[in-house]
Amino acid sequence: MYRMYKQFGFGGPIGKLFALGIVLLALGLLLLLVKLIIFLAWYAAGFIALAGLILLIIAWLLAGRKKDDSDEIEDGIHYF
Predict the structure, then answer these.
(1) Is the pTM of this model over 0.70?
(2) How many helices (H) and strands (E) does the chain have?
(3) Could you count the other beta carbons within 10 Å of the beta carbon of residue 11?
(4) What is the pLDDT of residues 33-68, one digit of tens each?
(5) What secondary structure letter does DSSP report for 4?
């Protein structure tokens, strides 16, 4: 890395500031990417939980309907 500084003339204070700026820019972009991933994961978790709740309600309603239907059928069946 030192050779790059010498070759491109980044050895002075302006070059060091330039290199520090590049490092900080890269770090900032990386942190923005991580924040975006966390943001998307937060909403994805909410949608998955909502879908699970909807499926549980549907299953509960269907189980209640099936139980009511089976009670009516069993009333008409005589066991020997």
Answers:
(1) no
(2) 2, 0
(3) 13
(4) 999 999 999 999 999 999 999 999 999 998 877 665
(5) H
